[in-house]
Structures are given as C-alpha cells and as structure tokens.
Amino acid sequence: MTMPQTIHIDGRPIGPGHEPYIIxxxxxxxxxxxxxxxxxLEEAAKTGADxxxxxxxxxxTITIDHDGPAFKIEGGLWDGRTLHxxxxxxxxxxxxxxxxxxxxxxxxxxxxxxPFDETAVDMLETLDAPAYKIASxxxxxxxxxxxxxxxxxxxxxxxxxxxxxEIGDAVRTAQENGCKEIVLLHCIxxxxxxxxxxxxxxxxxxxxRFGVISGLSDHTFGSAVSVASIALGGCVIExxxxxxxxxxxxxxxxxxEPEEFSTLVTDCKRAWRALGQPTYDLQGAESGSxxxxxxxxxxxDVAAGEAITRENVRSIRPxxxxxxxxxxxxxxxxxxxxxxxxxxxxxxxxx
Length: 351
What we know:
eight-stranded parallel β-sheet, 11 helices, 12 strands, 31% helix, single chain, TIM Barrel, Type Iii Antifreeze Protein Isoform Hplc 12, two-stranded antiparallel ribbon
C-alpha cells in the first residue's frame, strides 16, 4: 500500500520526511496530586518532546468494582490488585483536564489524551484536544474507535495484543467514520516489556501493510529500542515519563526521568538525521581527510633516468600522489628528472 507522506498534529508535520514525533506519556504518575500533574507537564515540556499525552477515564468508566478472578491482577507490577483499585489510583480526574490543557497552552506544548469511553471523548472535545490516542487494550473496541474517528481529528492507535485482523478492523473503522490521519504504534503490552520480544521490525511492516504512518509505543527500559525503531523507519515514539522513579506511581518502574527523556528525544532525532540516503559520494565532513589517504610517494632519492622500483616508490600516506592502483604501471618506468625522498609521484615525473 502507498503510505501517506505527512500528517499533522497541532500544526506539526509527522512522517518519513520529518524528524520523529516524540510523545511523553504522563499516565498515572501524578500519584493523585494535581500539583504533581502540573509539575509533570512542566518538566515534560522541557525535555524537547513534541507532545505530552495523558489518559482520560475514571475507575467506573473503565471497569467495575469487583474482586472476582478476572478482575484481580496476577503477576507483574500490580500483582494482587483489582482493576478498580489500580484505575482508582491511576486515573486523572476529569476536573483536572481543563487546568492541565490551559497550562499546556501557556507552555506552548501540544497536549492530547487517550479517551476510554464516549464521555471522555465528549469532555476532551470541549477542551479542543488536537488528536486522540486509542490505547492497545481499547483497539478492539470498535464502537469507541468509530466515535473518536467521527470527530475528524488525527488518531494514534496502539496495536499491543492485536492480531492483523484486529488491526485491520480498527484502521478500517477509523477510516470509514471520518478519520483521514492515522498512526499505528507497534506495542508490546507488557509492563515493562522485554527487549528481546520487541520485534521492532514490525514498525515498518505496519506502515507497508496498512498504508499509514507507524511508530512505537515503548515500554522497555531505556531508549535503545526506541532508537532502533527510528532506524527502521518509525516516525512516532511514545514513552512513559515520571519525575523520579523513586517517588513510586503505577507506571514509574518503566518510565523515564526528565534527563533520561531528554536523552531519548536527542538520540531519536539524531538517529533520524543519521539515516540520510544511500550514497557513495564524498561527504563534506570527509573533505579534510582525503589528503591523508594512501598514494604513491618517492621514499628514496631517484636520479634522472633511474628506474622506479619498489625500493624507491611506495604506497604511503598522505594522498597527494598517484593512486596506489597505478603502482604496477609505474614500476620499471624511468625518472624524468631527479626525484627527492618525500615527493608525491605523478605522471609528469616519469619518462
């Protein structure tokens, strides 16, 4: 399929011809404090991220308060907790959204969110959210995908756990309901995710299969996996953010601290700039080094008329003489004049 060259979020172009779009995910690392959420937003803005993302749900819109087996988490970071308990802690209250969006506008940074039901979408519309993210766990909720798509704004869809058919259903649903700008993010829905299961070659495959821009929602430690996805052609990175992992929080264990996130931004953009195009031409940065390549030099004085031999002419650095490939043609020729040790050889010096 033909991949779109560029989409836009809040005026920022996103696509293969542009620097990678880095999203800083605040998630629930506000630890229940609006002041901390505002501080998270302010520190995230300083990292150089292109956008900051939050999550819009309440514990009661995403699940029910129940302690049955399917409602209790087994293993991992949240072992033993019920879904309702976890989401009660991690939720960003709806009444916080307006001050957070207002602060983002003061800072001049893009803020958008992942809505988890229609009430969240309606609330975000009142705040003029510039884009929407569909979380991996909601990618199979096609009515939600359709409702978000009906707003006509760019959509970013994470694909964690989704198979090809489910991804295709989500893309088709979004397109059929009015969304013209779609990003698919490859994602491993494990918290944290192991490097060896990241399979970042899926990132370019998503773009090719579905004709959309693709990227990575990265839950691994550090920034190496994100950089690898950029090297393979990914255009968008989403990574979780916290002020300090030591402060705790539902996602803190696999989130980056401010300095680390700044490094992620820098490394991803450097990786993109380094890609360039296939070329075998001399690059500007190499021009000063050409003179130090090997070439043919006189290494022992040669009298006029004397034969050129391997003892008096050799391939050495620097590179101002004949190319070394000409040595077989030079050997046995005679010097046209006296040649001095350290003199670069050229055709005019040979009889």
